[in-house]
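User: My collaborator sent over this chain with a note saying "see what the structure looks like." That's all I know about it. Can you take a look?
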Amino acid sequence: MKIIPAILFAMCLAFAGHVFSEDPKQPAGLKAPTMKDVTPDEAALLMKSKPAPALMIDVRTPDEFAEGHIPGARNVDFLGDDFEKQIAALPADRPLIVHCAAGNRSSKAVAKISAMQKFAQIFHLKSGFNGWKAAGKPVETKPAAK
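Assistant: Without extra context I'll predict from the sequence alone. Here is the result:
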């Protein structure tokens, strides 16, 4: 009869180890998003990947965006009042590539987006739009629809 309490005790320890082994900041069963800095070449490939091409999110102001932006990028102003609402409306099944002009605002935006725990993959174009242009990648200069 001493075996049954010992087995129950061992099962409780195993269960407790499983529950407490996860990151306490994460809800049970939800993994932290994968985040990685990418180059302009890597970002261009991610935007063409199949079956779910990455969404390019430009967190600059609408005026900056209108002066020139990456083709296919969506403008979601990090300084705007509805930043989180616009990000939450994006499809969760596609990776995001986030950029600003040079990397400062976008690094803050990546942290905020990551905290939302909606997207599995978030990429940061660390060199920003300036790095994209310097790499000779295509740029649109007309305003794009939001």
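A starting point for your reply to your collaborator: The chain has six helices and five strands.
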